[in-house]
Design goal:
Blueprint: H1 13-50, E1 51-53, H2 60-77, E2 80-86, E3 99-105, E4 110-114, H3 117-123, H4 125-134, H5 144-168
Parallel strand pairs: 1-2, 2-3
Antiparallel strand pairs: 3-4
Helix pairs in contact: 2-5
Length: 169
């Protein structure tokens, strides 16, 4: 006994319609599953490109935490996070209106922070200037910059969340 018996000219129209509907539903299900798998792969690739650790200083737990913050900023506020941890001067990406760039250079102990224009306007010039100038200044000993990086991202996320909360009121 076959699951779908062979079609004949004597099949009733309802049988032909049901077979056609079953065939179409198989294609739709395959398309949906393909899209979900593709979306997951794109998220993984995007997250890996957001955080580049040339120095290999971050462990897996720290990377996961940064990836989680990356996804939160992207989903909640539309901000793309780009972190470059290098042994040479960090090269900022092409400036756009959505990217928060944090570049840390471990050898000469330099850092670069570039806020998106709207975030800079919302936080105020004074906060952003002080953050860009001083936030990582005293955090180079014993890899304290790793903790400071997490604190910086949490501070930015909390400040954005507070502004969002105030805007809803």
């Amino acid at each position: 006994m076959k699951f779908f018996p062979e079609s004949t000219k004597n099949d009733r129209p309802i049988v032909k319609v049901l077979r056609f509907a079953a065939l179409i539903s198989i294609f739709i299900i395959a398309g949906v599953l393909f899209a979900r798998n593709n979306e997951k792969a794109v998220r993984t690739i995007t997250a890996k490109s957001a955080i580049w650790d040339q120095s290999k200083t971050l462990n897996e737990a720290q990377k996961k935490s940064l990836h989680r913050l990356h996804h939160e900023l992207k989903a909640r506020f539309g901000i793309k996070l780009k972190i470059n941890i290098t042994t040479v001067d960090p090269t900022p990406p092409k400036v756009d209106t959505q990217t928060l760039f944090i570049g840390l250079c471990l050898a000469p102990r330099k850092f670069t922070v570039i806020f998106p224009p709207l975030v800079q306007a919302a936080f105020g010039k004074e906060f952003c200037t002080k953050f860009q100038r001083d936030y990582f200044k005293d955090s180079w000993e014993n890899n304290a910059w790793v903790l400071r990086l997490g604190q910086a991202l949490t501070l930015i996320s909390d400040k954005l969340a507070a502004m969002e909360h105030d805007a809803i009121k």
